[in-house]
Amino acid sequence: MLPSLAQAERVFVSNEKDNTVSVIDGESLEVVETIKVGRRPRAMAFSSDGSELFVAVGDDEAIDMIDLESLEVVSSLSSGEDPEVIRVDPNRPYVYVSNEDDNIVSVLDYQQRRLVTEIPVGVEPEGVGISPDGKWLIATTETSNMAHIVDLESMEAVYHRLMGARPRHAEFTADGSEAWVSAEVGATVSILDMQETFDVSHTIRFDVPGVPRETVQAVGVALTSDGRYGFVALGPSNRVAVIDQQSYEVLDYLLVGQRVWHLALNADESRLYTTNGVSGDVTVIDVDELEAIRSIPVGRFPWGVVVEP
Amino acid sequence: MNLASYGHCLRGVVSRELLRFVHQRSRFVAALVRPLVWLFVFAAGFRMALGVAMTEPYQTYVLYEVYIVPGLVGMIQLFNGMQSSLSMVYDREMGSMRVLLVSPFPRWYLLVSKLLAGTLVSIVQVYVFLAIAYLYGVQAPLTGYVLVLPALVVTGFMVGALGMLLSTFVRQLENFAGIMNFVIFPMFFLSSALYPLWRIREGSYLVYQIAALNPFTYAVEMIRFAMYERFHAVAISISLVTALVLLGLAILAYNPARGMMARKGGGGE
Fold first, then answer.
1. Does residue B87 form part of some domain?
2. Could you tell me the pTM of the whole model?
């Protein structure tokens, strides 16, 4: 029933209320390990060399570093207040952290374990996206309803664009020409042109048939590198929207668990994993078939998900 | 009587039932429209309310349309089983049952042939319904459509034997409508056909207990698990035992020396 079972990928899921990271084996689709981390783990990212997994632990104001061989927290980096979303620089040993309460994005050098700089942005920064070439960073601010486009050479925000209400997440396309920014309350995804105008070129709206409008909240975004699909987690509507990356047309809504929050594609992009916060599970979607194939119980309130490259 | 004549008898009974089915086009349409209305109208309206549960044998969350299909398959068979029995009341009233019952074959054989014929008709209806549901988007794994066949046979026998047993209590066609209402509807609604048992339990513990005792629940679960390539030993055992017990009782009831027919002076005499 499950196609391409030969994959031996590992899927990491942060459980916000359990203070753990669940490890799912991509072959058996079962939780094989549960790693104890700091309090309130949310966003995760791999180090550039792929040897460590960074976990933002909000209530401990730190980033826990998990060694991917021993699957244990080997060190912890102080991150500033309430870290929520983290991204790793593709060129430098930097990790970018949105500090919700301080209205800044902190830049940390994880090798030298020091604070490089702090980039002031709008009120309540949340989503952080980084371009594949490491040139641009986008920070979304929940209260300002803005996307702040940061030049990573000068480490300064150079453009500020208005988004839908409560922008949550920013994701670049594989060629870096666009960034997709989701808005939780606005229930939209704004497409930012990252080549010329650095402004919104298109807005995608969602309307799930038979589902109350207020439960449709756009949160996590995942984009296939072949330019085929965009996936958007629609929160308490329990659906993942499938979007044609070229025409921006919504192709389908796939039923997943309750309050779907974030998404991650695996390395060959044959599968999409979603975290379902309220039902406490991860749904596996077959990307070619556009079909949910299994839901796997994890810990309480799964938030972020990453798949080992 | 040799095996060939038994076969001849079976062919006769089955072809009569199939012919009757083919000639009554409205019955075929009605048998399909009923579950389709449930699928297209009822299930679509309950999408949000029930689309959030994960229940065995499903491996992920399913829409209500997907959940309700095995229950509607059971509904088709339930209605067909009752309709087939209804035809026995009619046969008795019209005298054609006498032709059947005076044949030299043992009565149990005649009744089993009759049940088999009714089951075959219901299976044809079920597969047409499943094909429409498939086109509508309710798609089980392809092997599930093969694996469900034995489950359909057992369910067909179970509800058919129940109808047969009930038909012995009914002297006239008109009385049968009451039994339909008092048997079909409670059996269908007080089962896992429309809602999973755990969901019923949230609503009413009493209804849950009744549904958990209702053999139709197990027939529906047997169908549901088979469609998704799973083997539900408990559901299969309960359905099989129920089918055999009801069949035994029906044969007993149709026995002119001991059964209800003797007491009520039925059987077309």
1. yes
2. 0.84
